[in-house]
Amino acid sequence: MNRIDETLNSLRAKGEKALGLFLTAGYPHLDSTADLVLALEQGGADVIEIGMPFSDPLADGPVIQQSSAAALGNGVTLDTIFDDVRRIRKSSVIPVVLMGYLNPILRYGREEFFRRASEAGVDGIILPEVPLEESTEFSSMLAGNGLAHIMLVTPASPGERIREIDQRSSGFLYCVSSTGVTGSRSSTVAGEYLAHLRRHTGKNPLLVGFGIATPEDACIYSEQSDGVIIGSALIRLIASGASSSAVADWVRQFRNALRRVS
Questions:
Q1: Candidate list 5, 41, 60, 166, residue with the active-site label
Q2: Which of 25, 36, 60, 70 has the lowest tally of Cβ within 10 angstroms?
Q3: Nearest-CA neighbor of 96 among 218, 234, 3, 233?
């Protein structure tokens, strides 16, 4: 059982929702990541997702694309990301997940990448480009290094595929929300989607991400899930030049909102 399992199992036992935060490694400055992670933890984050910048991030929205381009300009590499995680581990045991595109990992060497990630203190990996049909080999390599293989489902995923993804995943299931849905319609769509997921899963906790920008969004999507992951909204805050204490205060708003749902 790694830190992801320990954290999410503990939260579930207490009836609390998980708060995950995504930030881009090496942004806004090459040495920003570790300090930002500690600020997120201070604000109440339970899981940290660190994006590995790539030069052609086709699946990302403009906010994360811009942060990735800036991070690459700052000189971020997979090795500097491992260094960031080692710095985090000097003062924190918060679960850390790396998320990114496959090309840099293949160039680095899959076995070497997963080994170095584990040695640095990473707990899980998200590889959105790897489909279910090609996941077996990756799952084996990740498990061999004590890393969770966190896979994605979407509102378009049929029930049978959701069941299989849930069985092959570990750590948690990353549930892509219907982006940009707000208000009462958001509540209806979120409820239907998550009820569908609940009918076809059971192995892994369900964390919902993509398009969650406000504490109200977080409450809506956490009612029938095990928690949420917030990304672009945090990147926008960081881009505004917010201090570490301001970032922690911003996260605390989400933490307090989720306590009302728990």
A1: 60
A2: 70
A3: 3
Q: What sign does the CA torsion over 163, 167, 172, 173 have?
A: negative
- pLDDT 10s digits, 200-232: 999 999 999 998 999 999 999 999 999 999 999
Look-up of token digits 């504490």? 215
- Give yes or no: 60 in active site: yes
| Of the candidates 26, 7, 24, the residue with the CA atom closest to the CA atom of residue 171 | 7
Ramachandran class of 132: left when φ > 0, alpha when ψ lies in -120 to 50, beta otherwise: alpha
Residue of 78, 77, 74, 53 whose CA lies nearest to 64? 53
Is 79 annotated in the active site? Answer: no
Integer-rounded Cα Rg, in Å, for the chain is 17
| Whether the model pTM is above 0.90 | yes
Catalytic: which of 16, 49, 123, 226? Answer: 49
Spell out the domains of the chain, with CATH numbers in brackets: 3-8+18-150+218-261 (3.20.20.70)
153 close to 197: Cβ distance less than 8 angstroms: yes
Q: Name 62's Cβ contacts closer than 8 Å, sequence gap at least 6.
A: none
Q: In b/e form, how buried is each residue of 25-37, taking b as 16+ CB within 10 angstroms?
A: bbbbebebbbebb
